[in-house]
Amino acid sequence: TLGEPDFITPAHIRQAAVQAMDAGDTHYTASGGILELKQAVCRLYERDYGLKFAPNQVLISCGAKHSIHNVITSLCGPGDEVIIPTPYWVSYSALVELTGATAVLVPTTEASGFVLTPEQFASAITPRTKLLMLNNPCNPTGAAYTPAQLEAIAKVAVEKNIPVLSDEIYEKLIYGDSQFQCFAGFGPEVAARTIIVSGVSKAYAMTGWRIGWTIGPAAVIKAMDNLQSQETSNPCSISQYAAIAAIDGPQDSVETMRVEFENRRNYAVDRFNAMREKFGITFAEPGGAFYVFFNVAKSFGKPLGGGRVVDNATDFCTALLEEAHVALVTGDAFGAPGYVRLSFATSMDVLKRG
């Protein structure tokens, strides 16, 4: 069920951490991260997306979740509203509520591929709206927005002057015909209202290293750095040097892992397609991340394989774990009753046994 790659961190990245320790880079750094890593992040976005940022627009934090906390806490407070498309990653609403702001949940549908429309976005905006949180590709649905879909949302953000927190942590895990587009890439007016959150966890199999980053307007980044300096101080110094090696070093391991994830995704999709008619399962095929999010509501009120009768997704997951030893996450946690999430971030052997 875990949202992390099952691969080991590539060797050249691990070696960079050893070299950093041997060089004595084991002390405090600047609260917002070392300049060398900020510069590496800037190089990454110019290399991969043709976008130019300055180091004072980058903040290094203890993972993408920490970055999201920094953004919301710096921008939002009591009386503010934050728009969140559902299904959504479980921490989004909790992080909003910690600031005293209100999470405005906007349901998306399986028929739409779990994609927020510009009309839905515009309708949810009020005078109290402070931020839109957008996750692309999405956890838990695997939805991957097309560039046209993103651009339509970006136009609303500019017209209504609403900042967008674009959580792009799964950006390198894209499958089939899907195409990733960085949200800040739709011109300067959009970039001025975009706060990018990403990191090394998913692309480089570095979840335990705890390095994420935020890119945005310099004034926002400064406010976030002030907050971070009081809450956590700097991210791990050793991990920062390892992240430089990840960004600037060979990228072949990123593609190797992506291809293996795509093979697993295709296998899982084929298996679920074969079960559609027999079990009444429905789902939107994932274009990114490493999840299949499927509807099991037609199994409610009927005996499952072991004879147990369930009437919600949480009980369905419990029954499946206890009787078939298969672990899923209930859609109730993601704001989507009736759905469950399967992670294919595990070996093909495990998937086949499941």
Your description of this structure?
The protein has 12 helices and 11 strands. The chain is an alpha/beta fold and 354 residues long. The protein folds into 2 domains: 11-250, 3-Layer(aba) Sandwich (Aspartate Aminotransferase, domain 2), CATH 3.40.640; 253-353, Aspartate Aminotransferase, domain 1 (Alpha-Beta Complex). The strands form 2 sheets. A 7-stranded mixed sheet has the order 1-7-6-5-4-2-3, sandwiched between helices. A 4-stranded antiparallel sheet has the order 8-9-11-10, covered by helices on one side. α3 packs parallel to α4. The protein is globular, with a radius of gyration of 20 Å. It starts with 10 loop residues before the first helix and ends with a helix. The mean pLDDT is 97.
Query: What name is given to the CATH topology of the largest domain?
Result: Aspartate Aminotransferase, domain 2
Specify the helix fraction band: 40-55%
- CATH homologous superfamily classification of the largest domain: Type I PLP-dependent aspartate aminotransferase-like (Major domain)
- The SSE order reads HHEHEHEHEHEHEEHHHEEHEEH
Radius of gyration: 20 Å
Largest sheet: 7 strands, mixed
Oligomeric state, counting identical vs distinct chains: single chain
Number of strands: 11
Report the total helices.
12
Q: How much strand? A: 5-15%
Looking at this protein, list some descriptive labels.
7-stranded mixed β-sheet; alpha/beta; single chain; Aspartate Aminotransferase, domain 2; Aspartate Aminotransferase, domain 1; 354 residues
Quick rundown:
41% of the residues lie in helices and 14% in strands.
